[in-house]
Amino acid sequence: MCLAVLLLAAVSLVRGQSPPAVSELCMGCLCEANTNCDRSFRCEEGECGLFRISVPYWKDAGSPVIKDDNATDDGAFQRCVLDPYCAARTVQGYMTRFHKDCNGDKAVDCQDFAMLHYLGAGCEGDPDEGFGQFRAALNECLAEVMKLPGSSGRM
């Protein structure tokens, strides 16, 4: 399993708040599926950071910012989504707001969070050719996570 998944799992913790919507391991797999958790990934086609977050997504998540920053300042979006902690808070905020059973299996798990993240709030966006690759990378990561000792069946 990629070390980046384990590192991001630690990064994704939101200290001092209620339990996160997305498990730490699912968060790590979302990172792997989006950018291979490549910290050098900046922005491409309006999506930035480890999770490839867009400005509308960031705003829907509540426009989180890094410490001592202001969401209305120029560059606040990029400073946040290029910071692993703030990017993870952005994903958590988005998933908390749009929490949904996208695949209709009566449980909200990592597969649903992946669909929300990639397709948007209603899980109804049109998947492009990149969605298959994203889904394959996510499922590969999740399969590796399931091999870890003490891993449960759902994330």
From TrEMBL:
Catalyzed reactions per annotation: Hydrolysis of (1->4)-beta-linkages between N-acetylmuramic acid and N-acetyl-D-glucosamine residues in a peptidoglycan and between N-acetyl-D-glucosamine residues in chitodextrins
Class of enzymatic activity (EC top level): hydrolase
Gene3D superfamilies: 1.10.530.10
EC number: 3.2.1.17
A Pfam family it matches: Destabilase
CDD domains linked to this entry: lyz_i
InterPro entries according to UniProt: Invert_lysozyme
Gene Ontology annotations of biological process type: defense response to bacterium; killing of cells of another organism
Gene Ontology molecular function: any one: lysozyme activity
Keywords, ordered alphabetically: Antimicrobial, Bacteriolytic enzyme, Disulfide bond, Glycosidase, Hydrolase, Signal
UniProt xrefs under PROSITE patterns: LYSOZYME_I
Protein name per UniProt: lysozyme
Annotated source species: Zootermopsis nevadensis (Dampwood termite)
